[in-house]
Specification:
Elements lengths: L1 H5 L1 H11 L1 H7 L12 H28 L4 H20 L3 H21 L7 H6 L7 H27 L7 H32 L6 H6 L1
Helix pairs in contact: 2-4, 2-9, 3-4, 4-5, 5-6, 6-8, 8-9
């Protein structure tokens, strides 16, 4: 459930992008859209605006329900507000397309830096209450997250700007929107599963269960 909540703005971006015609024709949004712009540009503007609102809701819900702000959500909110705002003002999708790469590479830098700053790498600070691991394993796991964030950012950059450049801009935008949801979410789920499999060997079994077996 938390993973779905983390992807909440992305899911709404996806839905509103493909339902932009309905939103433009049946809501006040249509009064704010320039009909002379290409359909995929207007769809991107609508989806970006919805995602910005969703990000504010995401951060606000965390604050009111748990009285804390998750750094990942906060960083994402700042980036989507800035880059998304530029996309809306200029009608240029490139800025919002950069957002996943900037966010992932920012996290890669933060996780990498935590290996050399402070007493614990960042992943250990987040998970050491749930599982005990040797220091070397924590560092290895933290570095795995660095690699994951770097690959995710690079993959987004490739799909957004270098994948099938001979195709129409509208088709390439559709491809990126699909990748933004299914591709990045799929990479995240796959990595989390692999991490769980890797960590399973370090989870001690209950003595009673071991005796029964």
């Amino acid at each position: 459930m938390k993973l779905l909540f983390d992807f909440f703005p992305i899911i709404l971006f996806f839905i509103s992008y493909y339902q932009a015609h309905f939103l433009i024709d049946n809501t006040f949004i249509g009064q704010l859209i320039n009909p002379d712009k290409p359909d995929f540009i207007n769809a991107t503007i609508v989806a970006t605006a919805v995602a910005i609102i969703a990000s504010f809701i995401q951060v606000g819900y965390n604050w009111f329900s748990q009285h804390k702000l998750e750094k990942m959500h906060l960083f994402s909110l700042v980036l989507i507000s800035v880059l998304g705002g530029i996309t809306i003002m200029l009608g240029n999708p490139a800025f919002i397309q950069w957002k996943p790469t900037v966010l992932n590479w920012l996290f890669a830098i933060v996780f990498f830096g935590s290996q050399f700053m402070g007493n614990k790498p960042l992943i250990q600070r987040a998970m050491d209450k749930q599982i005990e691991l040797p220091a070397a394993i924590w560092k290895r796991l933290n570095f795995a997250w660095v690699i994951f964030f770097f690959i995710s950012g690079a993959a987004n950059l490739y799909v957004a700007f270098y994948y099938h450049t001979e195709r129409l801009a509208s088709v390439r935008m559709d491809t990126w929107v699909n990748f933004k949801l299914f591709g990045l979410m799929g990479l995240t789920i796959a990595f989390v599963i692999l991490q769980a499999i890797y960590l399973a060997r370090y989870i001690p079994q209950d003595d009673d269960e071991t005796s029964d077996q």
